[in-house]
Design brief:
CATH superfamily of the largest domain: Bira Bifunctional Protein, Domain 2
Number of domains: 4
Number of helices: 16
Helix content: 25-40%
Number of strands: 26
Structural class: alpha+beta
CATH topology of the largest domain: BirA Bifunctional Protein, domain 2
Oligomer: single chain
Shape: globular
CATH architecture of the largest domain: 2-Layer Sandwich
Bound molecules: zinc ion
Low-confidence stretches: 1-45
Distance between the termini: 29 Å
CATH class of the largest domain: Alpha Beta
Mean pLDDT: 88
């Protein structure tokens, strides 16, 4: 006969018997022994945990990322390539999950469709958008130390016309440097074959505006969402995956009737803020930064950034812009094709205004990693103080959902464990680990943010059940093997309840 004690019941028993809460850590074990109940299956929990430290700095994260397989330097064995990074076994899963979360939030609405446009576009697109003429940074060369820097955001230059590296005043005049990557289409490398790697995904949405609207038969207001790579030849990339020359964007353009744009701008600010809270970025690490008149891009009527408090300070995570009818008007002018929308209800034609939400996927991954990192003091199996590193990622984002940890490498346990691995892998990304002590293996899973660990033990053969441990609460449940997938599915959904 198996008795189940809920955590709350156990807590009630404990606190009614023991006034001194500091002794609580060892009590579940004492209770277990004193009841002499070998078959007692209960929710046990490790002691209350104390967060001692959040992310110390970016270097700590870069180290963890490499050690655990989140992010590697690109072409590392050749000395690396500037500002290019590769997402490893866990990083690729994490990034995929971040994209899924954003994609679902956008396209599972009744008013937004998806799009996957090509990276190479007709070169005139970039004339119409203003990128050929206007997408430039002013660049200055130091003739002494050969440092190249942007003159518009370098303090030593703005103040005294000095090189930021060596202090020399022997500098070139600022010249405008276009940030678009250029390449050639076809076998002949002449001016007529120049194409660009897109510097933003948005133009694909504008040129496909009527294709999307008419094929989906959506009425305005409606939106187009896309995820894809963009390229900018930044002069000063940096801060790990925050600013890179090749990056992934998650952009949505929402087409509205002129006059309703200000209201939708506010609605989207709120919607996007709530997205970050839903996926557990801490509110105190988020803020809005409205653009003043001097910061506004040439196309924007209004703009606000969602900023995140990265280790290097508050920086842009997402831009929300009211682009007016700038883009559609430009494409009408350059293509000679109408992109007007006919409103059946009002029997009128108009060029829609666009509210844009644009997130850098890589910097969002960085924000989730920074935000989730914590070090906690807890007790190990022997009751000794122990620091565990936890990536408290939202379970939808965590790369691995379940770690399967047989208590020993003995065949009777590993055979069950491997079978369970296959059973769980039908529904979830899982990880099987039988090396090192169970405590160490728990810590390994904690460090990569795995929400649940399943332990196969010597009782499993008798009761056809395993112990499942919750990453954050560190509570344990005994769960029947046949119920395990359903248990994980439901508890991933209710992870924070
Ligand atoms: Zn210099």
């Amino acid at each position: 006969m198996v008795t189940r004690l809920a955590a709350s019941e156990l807590g009630a028993i404990l606190s009614s018997h023991f006034v001194d809460q500091s002794k609580l850590p060892v009590l579940p074990i004492m209770l277990y022994l004193s009841l002499g109940a070998k078959e007692l299956v209960m929710n046990t929990s490790e002691p209350p945990k104390k967060v001692v430290r959040n992310l110390p700095d970016l270097a700590a994260l870069v180290g963890l990322s490499k050690r655990r397989g989140f992010v590697f330097q690109s072409s590392e064995i050749y000395g690396g390539l500037g500002s290019c990074w590769d997402y490893g076994p866990l990083g690729s899963l994490l990034k995929l999950n971040v994209k899924k979360a954003w994609w679902n939030a956008m396209t599972r609405r009744a008013d937004i469709v998806g799009l996957d446009a090509s990276i190479l576009m007709h070169p005139t697109v970039w004339k119409a958008s203003g990128h050929v003429d206007g997408f430039t940074d002013p660049l200055v060369d130091c003739k002494d130390c050969k440092t190249r820097f942007r003159s518009d955001n370098t303090d030593s230059y703005l103040k005294d016309k000095k090189c930021p590296q060596c202090g020399s005043k022997n500098l070139s005049e600022p010249r405008l440097f276009n940030l678009m990557f250029k390449t050639h289409m076809g076998p002949v490398e002449d001016a007529g074959s120049v194409v660009y790697l897109r510097p933003e995904t948005a133009q694909g949405h504008f040129v496909n505006f009527l294709n999307c609207q008419q094929s989906s038969r959506y009425k305005i207001p409606f939106g187009i969402a896309a995820i894809g790579k963009s390229f900018r030849n930044e002069i000063t990339p940096g801060n790990f995956i925050f600013r890179t020359r090749e990056f992934e964007q998650m952009e949505m353009q929402y087409f509205v009737k002129p006059g309703t744009d200000a209201g939708f701008f506010d609605t989207w600010k709120e919607t996007r803020w709530n997205f970050y809270l839903k996926y557990k970025l801490k509110a105190e690490n988020l803020r809005f930064h409205p653009h003043g008149p001097t910061e506004l891009a040439h196309y924007a009527k209004a703009a606000v950034d969602v900023q995140y408090n990265f280790p290097m300070g508050f920086s842009e995570l997402e831009g929300i812009h009211n682009r007016g009818d700038f883009d559609l008007t430009q494409h009408m002018k350059f293509s000679g094709k109408s992109l007007e929308y006919f409103d059946e209800a009002g029997k009128e034609k108009f060029i829609p205004y666009v509210i844009e939400t644009a997130v850098g996927c890589d910097r969002l991954v960085l924000a989730f990693l920074c935000d989730a990192y914590r070090e906690e003091v807890t007790l190990d199996e022997a009751g000794k103080e122990d620091v565990r590193v936890v990536l408290g990622l939202h379970p939808d984002l965590a790369p691995i959902k379940v770690g399967i940890l047989p208590l020993s490498k003995k065949e009777e346990l590993s055979s069950v464990g491997l079978r369970l691995r296959d059973q769980l892998a039908e529904d979830f990304d899982v990880n099987y680990d039988e090396a090192a002590s169970i405590g160490k293996r728990y810590r390994r899973q904690d460090e990569i943010g795995t929400p649940f660990c399943v332990t196969v033990d010597f009782e499993t053969a008798n009761d056809q059940a395993v112990t499942v441990r919750h990453r954050d609460k560190m509570t344990q449940d005994r769960v029947n093997l046949t119920q395990l997938n359903r248990y994980v599915f439901e508890n991933l959904k209710d992870f924070y309840k």
